[in-house]
Amino acid sequence: MSKEQTFIASIDQGTTSTRFFIYDKSARIIGSHHVEFTQFYPEAGWVEHDPMEILESVRSCMTKALDKATADGYNVDSGLKAIGLTNQRETVVVWSKSTGSPLYKAIVWMDVRTSSICRKLEKELPGGRTHFVESCGLPLSTYFSAVKLLWLMENKEEVRAAIKKGDALFGTIDTWLIWNLTGGVNGGIHATDVSNASRTMLMNLKTLDWDKATLKTLGIPAEILPKIVSNAEVIGKIAKGWPLFGVPIAGCLGDQHAAMVGQACRRGEAKCTYGTGAFILLNTGTVPVKSTHGLLTTLAFKLGPKAQTNYALEGSIAIAGAAVQWLRDSLGIISSASEIESLASKVDCTGGVYFVPAFNGLFAPWWRDDARGICIGITRFTSKSHIARAVLESMCFQVKDVLDSMHKDAGEKGEVKNEKGEFLLRVDGGATVNNLLMQIQADLLGSSVVRPADIETTALGAAYAAGIAVGVWKEEELFASGQNIKTESIFSPKSSVEWRKKKVDSWCKAVERTFGLADLEM
């Protein structure tokens, strides 16, 4: 006998895998599936994905999650009210409107091939690196979508020709998926949401529309850009040929913004998602706060066309969990990511080893694309356990660097503290299952770290947005004291102030050693 209920689903398209979740009205997962896809590294510093492989990963995940829920007796076909979408941000695709084929592989957010374009623009523009900060909140950096699009326009004849013919469409991964899911060449909807658009460097943070002055300065035609919608509204319906035909796509957010919704972060509250990179966002309320300490001013979320816009301060860390993958895939020190906790736990310190994973430069708060990774302090005493622990510490040091900047930018009035006067960091993402990592983080911060029962808050946030759009949930109920967020563990600091200061001083020395290493001979 099937179980008649209300369901909401979400597509979570990340940097290394795609996942699909089906939730009941209590936000309990009743079906899910995930598929990893190929990472391409054609040159040093270049990272690409195959857009068609990503599409197929979505199809596979939808089909298998639906099969699982159906096998467990859930009538998802009749009870599914909407689908939310969340995705890796900044990654760009340009494709043909007439054929639906990508004109080049997707250039991934961490790709640094555009460093020469950034340097050129810094010299040419009156405002240098911060020329567009006033409109979009972002500095010139290889990180953001606009410069990746410029690289495609300058280096790929297929892209230039398609733009000239009026046959080119541009988008981040959300746009690529929405267009295909809603029909593709047969009337697919060309749209993005305010959070993904805010990461392109092309959207004005105040008007929430493409900034005409920026487009003119960079020579980007507005015709190839998608329309911008809120994070919670019906964008279109799933087209024939896809699983769940006719179900509305009603929520769309960049992954880090979705995690903020999944964690119900109100003004003054922050979360850190530990994934391939690590991303810390602090909700600053309805007014953008300009950073003077190396952070980004960005949009947090806008849960409906008429809803208030929430803004955020963000610190982005390029390499977090990716360093663990490097230990596994490139060095063979571990055979699975989960092994790093037991390996690092065999020693109680790093033995003076410091690892800075500046594989493609450093993001916030340093913003040094000339930095490269180093591992220093190695002696004959050093073991693979010390290196594993240094890798975990590197993730935590980078988060501390960002939070220190965040505290300075937000000030006392911009942060919510508990009854003990602590600023609590909410954490999520796959790496947070590592208890040692979480304890190291609390020790280095000198304040508590809160891990929810459901660490997959990115997918949950996209589901919440879709559910809000179709009336399954209400925004005010979701954010009421974070009552829907169940806490699993709180990690409290056990370290001394003196120990913490010495460790941080040593880390800062190590970071400085990474600068200016990008031109080392191969």
UniProtKB/TrEMBL annotation:
Associated pathway: Polyol metabolism; glycerol degradation via glycerol kinase pathway; sn-glycerol 3-phosphate from glycerol: step 1/1
GO cellular component, one term: mitochondrion
Species, as recorded: Gossypium australe
Keyword Nucleotide-binding included in the entry's annotation: yes
Record InterPro entries: ATPase_NBD (IPR043129), Carb_kinase_FGGY (IPR000577), Carb_kinase_FGGY_CS (IPR018483), FGGY_C (IPR018485), FGGY_N (IPR018484), GK1-3_metazoan-type (IPR042018), Glycerol_kin (IPR005999)
Family affiliation: Belongs to the FGGY kinase family.
SUPFAM superfamilies according to UniProt: Actin-like ATPase domain
Catalytic activity: glycerol + ATP = sn-glycerol 3-phosphate + ADP + H(+)
Protein name (Swiss-Prot/TrEMBL): glycerol kinase
Alphabetic keyword roster: ATP-binding, Glycerol metabolism, Kinase, Nucleotide-binding, Transferase
NCBIfam families per UniProt: glycerol_kin, PRK00047.1
